[in-house]
From TrEMBL:
Gene Ontology MF terms in the entry: odorant binding; olfactory receptor activity
Cellular localisation: Cell membrane
KW Protease (keyword) present: no
An annotated GO cellular component: plasma membrane
Biological-process GO terms, alphabetical: signal transduction
PANTHER family: ODORANT RECEPTOR (PTHR21137), ODORANT RECEPTOR 19A-RELATED (PTHR21137:SF35)
Membrane topology: Multi-pass membrane protein
The protein, known as: Uncharacterized protein
Record key words, sorted: Cell membrane, Membrane, Olfaction, Receptor, Sensory transduction, Transducer, Transmembrane, Transmembrane helix
Length: 136
């Protein structure tokens, strides 16, 4: 567990590199024969990133729903033991669940946009540095 934050940062770095590298390879037309493989890599990265962030957002939304359902249940006629269990559930579900660790943004729709903006900015930087103008 000591090296877990470093693994997370390394995986995010690899994800960003695996998105920007094929896009630069395609737009710079380094090897038109290999572009099909680069398209497959790019589509795989996009799908993988989107699915992970969508499921994390779904987890957050469902935890908000759980808190609402726990508040609205009819607990007046329950036994004391069940009321205490409900109280513990309410206390622990006040804040929605988020998949965030050690300062890395939580996985949600906002993270998808941040990764896309960063990837696009990096790709634009590489294209301008190599002298090619990207026309999308």
């Amino acid at each position: 567990m000591k090296y877990f934050p470093y693994c997370t940062v390394a995986l995010l770095t690899v994800a960003l590199i695996s998105f920007v590298s094929p896009a630069y390879f395609i737009f710079a037309k380094i090897s038109p024969v290999s572009n099909f493989r680069m398209y497959i890599i790019l589509i795989t990265c996009i799908v993988q990133e989107s699915v992970a962030c969508i499921y994390c957002q779904h987890l957050t939304d469902e935890s908000v729903k759980l808190f609402g359902y726990a508040q609205n249940c009819h607990w007046v006629n329950w036994e004391k033991r069940n009321k205490n269990a409900l109280l513990i559930l309410l206390i622990h579900s006040m804040e929605p669940l988020q998949t965030s660790q050690y300062g890395v943004p939580s996985g949600n729709y906002e993270l998808i946009l941040k990764i896309w903006r960063t990837g696009y900015a990096t790709l634009t930087l590489f294209m301008n540095a190599s002298g090619n103008i990207m026309k999308i």
